[in-house]
Amino acid sequence: MSPNLDFKNIESVLKINARIFANHAALFFYNRKINYSELYEMVMRLAQGIKNLGIKKEDKIAIFLGNCPEFVISYFAIVSLGAIAVPINNMLKEQELEFILIHSEAKIIITSVIYIEMIKRLALPNKTFIRYIILTDAVLPEALNLYEIIEHTLPLFDLEEVSGDDVSSILYTSGTTGEPKGVLLTHKNFLSNVRSCIRAINPTFKDNFICILPMFHSFAFTVCILIPLYVGASITIVDHIRPFRKVIRNVIKKKITIFVAIPSVYNILAHINIPLAFKERVLKLIGSVRLCISGAAALPVEALEAFEEKFRVPLLEGYGLTEASPVVSLNPLKGIRKSGSVGLPLDGIEVKVVDENDNALSAGEIGELLVKGPNVMKGYFKDEDATRQTIREGWLYTGDLARIDKDGYIYIVDRKKDMINVRGLNVYPQEIEKVLVRHPKIKECAVIGVKDRFKGEVPKALVVLKENAFLKEREIILYLRQHLAHFKIPKYIEFVNNLPKTSTGKIAKKLLK
Hints:
By secondary structure, this protein is of the alpha/beta class. The chain is 31% helix and 26% strand.
């Protein structure tokens, strides 16, 4: 653990560790290695370059990138200025991205050349607030280049005073109405959550975390980026999870010690056929891994048990949500791990289960899970009503149904919300339904989540066509692909003559499920 357990803000993590662990590897990416002192200098040079563009404290800057060192460099440069980072899911389509850019009022977007045509359309005058495009991997007349800024700018020395209560990030998560909500997370939110996680898993500077989860996701950001940088450990960045042999190669070559993934990855690994004659050799090759962590979705008990039996490495399942920065609970590394449970609340975090009248329930009773602690968000950006509904008297209402046993272990039972969890990414039916009903041949529709062995859940659309209309499943898929990210596209489409309704005329989704 880093000697300093009380960093005042996120920038100070790198500033102090750049001195303590100067020549120690911070980031690995393919054959590239960046040590702590190099990383901090690049961060400070980019911060000065961004400041020269007129960015001030509390201005918003969007990051629209896949997994790469530039994501980390950009994020730390932004928050060093007291500005606010807006990491955005790089799988989003133009309309989805446009909403977030407008809502967040981002003045700069840091992105890759592969998205440049879409970004140029969104950066037109009066379209969004974007003033500058910064590319990480190309030199174009219409954009600035991140490495040219770093090369031609002296490091920033006159840092703004940034307190723990200042907002560091706005992370967009889908709302129950289908419109994304901007979760306001402060420096204190993240750092308190990081400290709680560190006390639970005991990482050190000798560890090497693999980051295969998308960096824009709160789970990956806290567990795969902030935790290792906090303790002076290394991060091996993998830009794509496929082909999976590339992930395994990195585990072996970079001697990964902490493997973080979502349930679908562990499910695949648990069912990989390893011939008995090669099993010991395989275990030796990946023998550096001492701990595996699963989050972002429910891990089937069968997959957990099969994985641990096959690879002889502890697999800890946890639970969290973006509004909690995000980790709430984790099965203990040392102590009892209960199958089917998401573990005990982290140090400094309180939980309870309540009924519909907010009465606390006894052990074993099912109700809505509430969370309280320094990790709980400041609120939703530009949405005071939603903030008041979600945070009451300091308690975060998660919308998840759970029970807590007599030993304090949490079991997630179901969700009050209609959200569909696809490989740890939130998908809301109304978002898909709004696009479907705009199709000229569709009369009405309903989207529900159905179980999937590898993705946890996937969307299924039930579609009623207009009279005399004809439409193929493939046509609907192609239509949706124009407007929605690929993980939101329904895996199943079923044509029906009508949909069941409640007495008030609403579609009875409980009956559909």
